[in-house]
Amino acid sequence: MSIEWLNEELYSAWGQRFRVDKELVRKKSDFQDIVIFESESHGRVLVLDGAIQITERDEFVYQEMLTHVPLLTHGAAKRVLIIGAGDGGVLRRVLEHPGVEKAVMVEIDGDVIELSKTYLPKIAGDAWNDPRADVIVGDGIEYVAKAVDESFDVIIVDSTDPIGVGEVLFTDAFYQHCARILGPQGLIVNQCGVPFMQADELRETSLRRARFFPTVSAYVAAVPTYVGGFMTLGVASKGGNPAKQDVAAVRERAREAGLLGKTQYWTPEIHVGSFNLPPYIAANLPASQD
What we know:
- The protein is an alpha/beta fold.
- Helix content is 31%, strand content 27%.
- The protein has helices at 59-74, 89-94, 110-119, 121-124, 140-146, 172-181, 195-210, 247-257, 268-273, 279-282, and strands at 5-7, 17-19, 22-28, 33-39, 43-48, 51-55, 79-84, 102-107, 133-137, 152-158, 182-191, 215-221, 231-237.
- The radius of gyration is 18 Å and the shape is globular.
- 47% of the residues are buried.
């Protein structure tokens, strides 16, 4: 009996492989190659253009940190814009915040949404049916360019790396529009790769955002399937410095939101501590800001 393995193709000289118990779907959309398979070790796994995107077993790490950190840093977010995140996990976590009145999700590849609904239902849960959710299959760049000034409190960008379909989400024009459509205390967060292997991604993204936001920082999360050490999540703020937060204040906001004790990775202490970066990561950020 032959055993089938999937080898990740993110890096040319290093990677990981998964034993495929059962391939559930393989489709070439208008934008990318999509594969979802069953794995004994990680449950169901979503792969886009040969790169692991999310697994059922460890998705909570990435989704909780990408969502709860910016929303609880802001403290009063009512309108949230999500770019990408077609699996629905970010949408689900955003809607766990009762203060959120509207969550607009713009995903360019409708096939990712539909296949995730069918084969990865645990990741989004009931988020697709929440009346506060507005799910749009469309171009996030175009949406941001046309959005009204100061119409969102938080923007969460959950995209692939800045190659292929995700490349246009890392440009000056995109960040300039994001700054325009965020309110006075607005924040934008997006994944900036694994700096042990992708330091340029964090460095170049931070420099671009610093042209339009007074404060640029980053925090880290340890996601097992994002090989190479810490995953960095870049954050840019029009308000205070997210890297200078108080655990007690974050805990009180989480208590009011009903999140304490309901997360698997995020805690108030992890939230604040995640901004304490190892020097090899911090070296890729602009000079310290107050």
